[in-house]
Design goal:
The complex is a heterotrimer of chains A (319), B (301) and C (545). Chain A is an all-alpha fold and 319 residues long. Chain A has 14 helices and 2 strands. Helix content of chain A is 72%, strand content 1%. In chain A, helix 4 runs antiparallel to helix 10 and helix 10 runs antiparallel to helix 14. Chain A is flat and about 95 Å long. Chain C has 545 residues and is α+β, with helices and mostly antiparallel strands. Chain C is globular and about 75 Å long. The chains are: A mainly alpha (319), B mainly alpha (301), C alpha+beta (545). The interface between A and B is large, with 98 and 107 residues.
Chain lengths: 319, 301, 545
């Protein structure tokens, strides 16, 4: 009798604790309702559709009635023997983009923060964001106007200096640099705004104290400004690392073209490969299968990174 | 006072500022240049453009490309209105929900914040893919040929919420919320009355991202709006114009314009100018909030 | 750790909930499908010559009479950009007056615009469309694949009851060309003569200037291009931008230098799998593994290096038609259907220019006729009014009044017939308002045509007189390779083709011999040998019975 009552009490205690915590969270949860509902309906409801990646899709039978084929939909990539090159390029470019773009975005934000000339800040920010408005189609057109060997600007300049023209579109070595630079150029303004906004939230009392203490500008940047960008950097890296196996199709397709095999060794990424395979031959299941693998890989990577961040700097972890 | 001025102008500071001016000016020019070329080439005579390539200023100024796009129909005006409405409504609504969720998720006294964060973050990695999404939108939500099909999918993104959470946490100490709490304000009231006014730079930044998303959106428009919708969002209209030379050739067929005179290249550039012009003009309005954040600090210092 | 487990569980729970949600919604779809199949099942039992119910039951045949007492709305979907002036809607108003009277129905028309049409078309089918009449084609909209996936309704039993004229006018062989696994799934385009034969249009006036009588071989073409390089500084011989689907030079090569033909088993635009010859269509071969393919690759490298096309062709974007018309390109690759209107276009641009055609098929003297399903119309599996849809379709193709209305628009607004009996545009015709299109191409019927007045009719007739004798019936008839279990190979082969062929045919793949070897390796890795063996096995099975 007594023991029974005790166990009930324990259970009740657990339940009560849960209830109290829920009561504490209630106001917050209510504020989350719009977002949670939104993602439940628009993101989670269609999510089981991922199953289509493992099927031989049939309209008549629907996604869940179609025959299960396991990983067969991915076979076409392994058959090509190019998987290694594709993975290498995709990961290489994403890492290069990740490192260079954050480096330059932080530099811009910090420098802009030091320059207290309001007009210059406004003007340069307005200009830096311009490339973000130009579509990749136009970026491709522009770069062709610069690099083509017939009447390209680059070759006109080279010849103007009495040098031989170069053939950029058949020279695979230069493409990693071109693509990294174009990517930098396109995203610098947009990304630096994020860091700039983070700097505006900096604790100004600390800054003043540092000034009074006689810290030099470089010391102030080193010990106050940069550390205050750390959480933003970590979060942005965590967010983008999930897409490490996803290539930026628009960039590669419009800059290089789809069948310039001379450049493939240094420019072919998963997305462009899948595009060629699907030309005139589109299959939902196959596209879904590739995307699924990219997701899984990204998920594992993010969870691992997040776990490490949580160990080292618990405050900065995503969850 | 003197001491302070001296500190402000220390050597490393001057060097850094000089580097800053040079470096950022260089970058800004490299960003401006293609844009200038784009605008100028859109006013260039087509034949000169094709033969001689791009120039800083048009060699033979003409508005022909714009006449071709705008001539005769007011479709593009309708498209502007639709896109502006979508952008304004979507940004307002999306920003409010994003900020509210972001604020809640950074409150350390919200016990389930990590769970909700993961719930949101998961959607950035996994999605059901095109087919289930299309089925959901058309068969279950019945949004085919409905502007809501453009408004809804871009409304909230986990990415923006996480950014917002980070901004608010960095900019507004938790003590502010606690103080409001002691005064008896509910989290929602605190959010409305205290947090929103204090996080203008963050709101401006995320608002800009959401707004740009709406302004540049064309894929959902392409998927869900067919020709029976009179005014399609701007980017879809322009995408149609750019991507199909036939569209132009056909629409020119009755105008006694020869194919060789069709400004195909300059039309591409002119559409790009038309697509980006308004938002570039609107940008300074948003921008003043980033700068104001700085000035507040500067005045204080 | 515990927290993480809980959160994982939460996510999983969400997944399950949404899965159930979807499963449920899936269930709710099935009844309609079941109803449809039950419908057909009962039909077989009740069907006799005079009495027939039909899948929907709203248009029964009673004692040989079609009962159209129930008014229905038939939905039709076509591909294309609807005319801006809305002439299609005005036509539809007129048409619906007639349809109401004749078959007690009205037509509702939907368009899928060209922009990303492939995605939108597939989405329409995937979302369980209930369109009654839907455009399809086996050449660029995957008719057979969609039929395999159950997208279209079996029309076999309905046709004799509801599309009487079409049924009577179509031979057994023609129906065979529309049949998938024993079911008629499409309505053919069989009463419009046309022959697809590829060609390079060229400037005959330039050729004469260079002392070239006519271009009828690759050698003459080479001569012509070299002369352009030497004499026409403003022009590039073939001003073009390469894409993943570039294959025109390959098409020229195998028609000029080999016996290969393209037909059953072919994959993608790069077509690395072909059939041995017109005499031996049932042998699957790959032209890529022919020694002559190396010669071709070497030749194309030579041409590319000489500057026959832009140096950076693989990354360039060029509007070749505009370039050809304005005299900055000496060649324009096309199919004969696009060649007919070119006379007028070139005349408009440049009255002194003269048009010539290098038909790749001329040397061999034959061209395989189009399949029955080059343009076709199907009824979707979920269609609500398939019977009335077929009745209307029958009128589209065989009723003169409706034929003229649908094909040309409203008389007096879109066209007039002059004294000589030719169709002309009215004098007050304004393109922006009056432009009209009928994009259900399969209903075209030469017997009901009113010829359009064309100042270049003599030239067009000359072309037709030349190519008509080349027509050879499609030797594979209704045979279709079933590649359901070969998706991986087909996709991989297609990728190898779209990667290598465009670069090789433009001589931009580095050393040509090396490139051909790499292309061959890529095809071998992709399983081309196994695939061809499978194609032959299926062919034997088909011909062996």
């Amino acid at each position: 009798m007594k023991s029974k009552g005790e166990s009930i009490a324990v259970k009740k205690k657990g339940f009560n604790a849960w209830k109290t915590s829920l009561r504490k969270d209630r106001a917050f949860l209510i504020m989350c309702i719009p977002t949670i509902l939104y993602f439940l309906i628009l993101a989670y409801l269609p999510m089981p559709g991922i199953y289509v990646a493992f099927t031989n899709f049939n309209y008549d039978k629907g996604i869940f009635g179609s025959a299960f084929v396991g990983l067969d939909n991915l076979k076409f990539i392994t058959m090509s023997g190019k998987l290694g090159v594709l993975l290498r390029n995709t990961v290489f470019y994403n890492l290069a983009f990740l490192i260079t773009s954050h480096l330059i975005q932080i530099t811009i934000a910090v420098l802009l923060n030091e320059i207290r000339n309001k007009k210059f800040q406004k003007l340069s920010q307005s200009l830096l964001i311009l490339p973000n408005f130009i579509s990749y189609v136009l970026v491709g057109l522009f770069s062709f106007a610069i690099f083509n060997s017939t009447n390209g600007i680059l070759n006109s300049i080279l010849m103007g200096f009495g040098q031989a023209g170069t053939q950029v579109y058949s020279n695979p070595e230069v493409w990693p640099f071109i693509l990294v630079i174009v990517n930098l150029w396109k995203g610098a303004g947009y990304g630096s705004i994020v860091y700039f906004a983070a700097l505006t939230g900096m604790d100004h009392e600390v800054l003043e104290a540092a000034q009074v203490d006689g810290a030099s500008t470089i010391q102030r940047i080193r010990y106050i400004t940069l550390p205050s960008l750390k959480p933003t950097l970590i979060i942005l890296v965590l967010l983008s690392i999930g897409g490490i196996l996803r290539g930026n199709f628009d960039l590669f397709y419009n800059m290089v073209g789809s069948s310039n095999v001379l450049l493939h060794n240094s420019t072919d990424v998963l997305e462009t490969y899948v595009f060629r395979a699907m030309t005139n031959n589109f299959q939902f299941s196959t596209a879904a299968a590739v995307s699924f693998v990219q997701s899984i890989f990204g998920f594992v990577l993010v969870m691992t990174t997040n776990a490490i961040v949580k160990k080292v700097e618990p405050d900065y972890a995503l969850f | 006072m003197m001491n302070k001025n001296k500190k402000k102008d220390d050597l490393s500071g001057r060097i850094i500022r000089t580097i800053g001016y040079v470096f950022i000016s260089f970058l800004a020019l490299s960003c401006l240049l293609p844009f200038v070329i784009m605008v100028s080439a859109s006013f260039e005579n087509e034949k000169i453009l094709v033969r001689e390539g791009y120039h800083l200023f048009p060699k033979e100024f003409t508005m022909y490309a714009y006449e071709v796009i705008l001539g005769g129909n007011n479709e593009i005006i309708g498209s502007y209105i639709v896109t502006i409405l979508l952008t304004v409504i979507g940004t307002g609504l999306g920003l409010f929900i994003t900020a509210m969720t972001g604020y809640v998720l950074q409150r350390p006294d919200f016990l389930r914040r990590n769970k909700v964060s993961l719930f949101l973050f998961f959607t950035t990695l996994f999605s059901g893919g095109l087919v289930p999404f299309y089925l959901l939108m058309t068969r279950y939500l019945h949004l085919k040929n409905n502007y809501l099909a453009i408004l809804i999918p871009s409304l909230i993104s986990a990415w923006n919420i996480i950014m917002m959470k980070n901004f608010i946490r960095n900019a507004i100490p938790h003590s502010v919320s606690e103080a409001a709490n002691i005064d008896g304000a509910s989290p929602f009231v605190t959010f409305l009355k205290v947090i929103i006014p204090m996080s203008k730079p963050a709101l401006a930044t995320i608002g800009l991202f959401i707004g740009l998303g709406y302004w540049n959106e064309w894929y959902n428009s392409m998927l869900f709006l067919d020709s029976s919708v009179q005014f399609r969002p701007l980017q879809l209209l322009l995408y149609n114009l750019i991507n199909r030379a036939e569209y132009l050739k056909n629409s020119m067929a009755g105008k006694n314009i020869l194919t060789q005179d069709l400004p195909l290249e300059t039309v591409k550039l002119a559409t790009a100018v038309l697509a980006t012009g308004p938002i570039i003009l609107a940008y300074p309005m948003v921008q003043k909030y980033f700068i104001s954040g700085i000035t507040v600090g500067a005045v204080k210092g | 750790m515990k927290k993480k487990l809980i959160s994982m569980f939460l996510v999983f729970a969400m997944l399950c909930i949404s899965l159930m949600g979807c499963a449920k919604s899936n269930d709710s779809e099935t009844p309609t499908n079941d109803a449809a199949s039950e419908g057909t099942a009962t039909d077989t039992t009740t069907a006799d010559a005079d009495n027939y119910t039909g899948p929907s039951g709203n248009t029964p045949v009673v004692n040989g009479q079609v009962d159209t007492s129930e008014f229905v709305t038939v939905k039709m979907l076509v591909l294309g950009d609807p005319p801006a002036g809305g002439a299609d809607k005005r036509m539809l108003e007129e048409l619906n007056k007639i349809l109401k009277e004749r078959v007690n129905a009205e037509l509702e028309m939907q368009w899928i615009e060209w922009n990303n049409y492939a995605t939108k078309y597939q989405m329409e089918l995937v979302s369980g469309s209930d369109i009654d009449l839907i455009f399809t084609t086996s050449t660029w909209l995957n008719l057979w694949e969609n039929a395999e996936k159950g997208a279209f309704m079996d029309l076999t039993e309905m046709l004799p009851h509801y599309a009487k004229q079409l049924y009577a006018d179509t031979t057994k062989e023609e129906w065979d060309g529309c049949t998938y696994k024993g079911k008629i799934v499409a309505l053919p385009e069989h009463r419009k003569w046309q022959l697809s034969t590829p060609l390079f249009a060229y400037r005959a006036d330039w050729a004469k200037e260079f002392g070239i009588e006519k271009i009828d071989s690759t050698d003459a073409l080479e001569q012509y291009c070299k002369a352009i390089l030497a004499n026409k500084p403003e022009a590039i011989p073939y001003n073009v931008g390469g894409s993943a689907s570039s294959n025109e030079l390959y098409a020229m090569w195998f028609r000029q230098d080999t016996d290969y033909v393209l037909g059953a088993g072919s994959i993608g635009m790069a077509a690395p799998v072909a059939n041995k010859s017109i005499e031996e269509p049932w042998t699957s071969v790959s032209p890529v593994f022919d020694d002559k393919f190396i010669d071709f690759a070497v030749k194309m490298k030579e041409w590319g290096d000489a500057g026959f096309w832009p140096q950076d062709v693989m990354s360039a974007t060029v509007d070749t038609e505009a370039a050809f018309l304005s005299g900055t390109s000496g060649i324009y690759s096309m199919n004969v259907a696009n060649y007919y209107p070119l006379f007028k276009k070139l005349e408009d641009e440049n009255a002194d220019a003269e048009l010539g055609a290098f038909f790749f098929d001329e040397k061999r003297g034959f061209a395989i006729s189009d399949v029955m399903t080059q343009d076709a119309c199907s009824v979707t599996a979920n269609a609500k009014n398939p019977e009335r849809a077929l009745m209307i379709y029958d009128l589209f193709q065989y009723d003169p009044e409706i034929y003229h209305l649908t094909q040309y628009g409203i008389e007096g607004e879109q066209y007039i017939v002059n004294e000589a009996g030719f169709r002309e545009r009215p004098t007050d015709y304004v393109e922006e308002e009056d432009a009209y299109l009928w994009d259900m191409w399969s209903t075209r019927n030469d017997a009901l045509e009113i010829p359009e007045f064309n100042e270049f009719q003599a030239q067009i007739d000359e072309v037709n007189a030349k190519i008509k004798p080349w027509t050879v019936l499609n030797p594979w008839g209704s045979f279709i390779v079933d590649s359901a279990n070969w998706n991986a190979q087909v996709t991989a082969i297609n990728e190898a083709g779209t990667t290598w062929l465009p670069a090789i045919q433009f001589g931009k793949a580095g050393d040509p011999v090396e490139a051909v070897n790499q292309y061959r390796d890529a095809l071998k890795n992709a399983g081309i040998d196994e695939y061809m063996a499978e194609v032959e096995r299926q062919m034997k099975e088909y011909t062996g019975n």
